[in-house]
Amino acid sequence: MSQSGQIRVALAQINPIVGDLKKNADLVSKHAFDAANAGAVIVVYPEMILTGYPVEDLANRASFREASIAAVSELATRINNEGNGDLTLLVGYLGQTQAGKPQNCVAVIYRGEIVATYIKHHLPNYGVFDEYRNFTPGAHSLVIRVCGVDIGLAICEDIWQSGGPVAELAKRNIGLMLVPNGSPFEINKFDARLALVQQRAIEIGAPLAYVNMTGGADDLVFDGDTIVVGSGGEVIARAPQFEEGLMVIDLDVRISSSDPDLIISNPPILKYDKIKTGVARRLGENDEIWQGLVLGLRDYVEKNNFKSVLLGVSGGIDSALVAALAADAIGADRVFGVALPSKYSSDHSLSDAKELASNIGLNYRIIEITPMVANLIENLRVDGLAEENLQARVRGLTLMALSNQEGHLVLATGNKSELAVGYSTLYGDAVGGFAPIKDLYKTQVWQLATWRNELAMLQGQTPPIPESSIKKEPSAELAPNQKDSDSLPEYKLLDQILSIYIDEDGGRPAALAAGFDPLLVDKVVGLVDRAEYKRRQYPPGTKISSRAFGKDRRLPITSHWRES
Questions:
Q1: Which end of the chain is more exposed for a tag (fewer CB within 10 A), N or C?
Q2: Active site residues
Q3: CATH of domain 286-483
Q4: Is 60 exceeded by the pLDDT of residue 1?
Q5: pLDDT (tens digit per residue) in 315-329
Q6: Exposed/middle/buried for 513, CB within 10 Å: 0-12, 13-18, 19+?
């Protein structure tokens, strides 16, 4: 019968930058120093922390693989030279087979050496993931003994699939399981994560620590949510969402319970004065969406070295919400809003835009586009829809010119509802380098705007978004008395159908089964199917749903298949 004891483990919930091996190594080193000072004997980092994640087709570049392999070796030496060699590190990196095929690896580092390597078994091939394209799977489990504790390793998808490493480790009677992860944020995903981690801990009969990264990577955002559960699934510790930090925890574990592949250290377990580790409060839905969008935008700006952002402020709800997000992400002083009125713009459009700028404190100016539009109409002799789209394109042209001249990143302000049905103008309101609310339905935009204003009031601050922008009927203002409802169903109905057709991938029969009018369903489905070419040309934006446009939903542009 194995004995019981304690082990102090450090879990590094940190934010890497894809491809920046030096900065990522610095992060690893810093948290190793902090872990050692806290008395931890092992520190666990997120999946592929050294390279950043996901690396996508960078994995196929021999130069990048070689640089990653060199970097992890240099890191091992560095940690030892910095006096932290007795600490065991689990560091994710990009490795390769003897034949040069890329692999998703965790290096076990101890006293200046890479003493073992674990290779990810299960490669996800769904949603945003296409890892079979980039990696070769591993085939063997790994158990290491650290201070007498037999520790089993797995990487992210390894625990999402039944069998494989989890089943093997359960048979091997380990004392602790450590799981580095690169698990992107989705609304309410933490419930699924927790249930999964609890299930796997019960299966292996040992505590399990699930370590996730935080930060933005293009259209993905990682929320952390590092979790530790006991052998019965009880929650022992949980890190805050969307925050970097090092969580140090003392765990009651079995010692010398297995037949390890590698013995790193085998002294008796010392009894610690237990660290009191908290269970962070779970964020409410609006709060976690907001923080996810803020972090996704902030990291896109900062990691791509933009000094500021620029957007058209129309007085409408979408641009108002994007402006508020941008101010929270990078500071109002780095946000530049431009009102671009035409002859069809209402008085309240300008007054609402001005109020928004005042509430937030962003940089604001007005550029009248009527003369530019008139000149183009006279020369091109266009009218009707072409004239409407011309106004949007003049606005897009103006924003891009200012971007070129002043160095701003242009933010597109379209939402998921508009993107779904093609209610946008290519090279007009669709221009930009990033689309912060691309994965928010219109009803969610209203919901989030109301919540953000209420939060400001609770904090004794001025609500950022004008009440008029929230309450008024949406309009593109490209024609006299134009309303979104002239072209689209009521957003409440539209979003319900879109959720079935897009998020649930339910198809026309599912929408009809939900009780929606067949003519309305056919109209919405038809609009969605015809707009794929527009969506392909839209900027990236932070994913917050289970089915975002882009990698989550890949359909041909040229297709004659129709649901109706």
A1: N
A2: 47, 120, 156
A3: 3.40.50.620
A4: no
A5: 899 999 999 999 999
A6: exposed
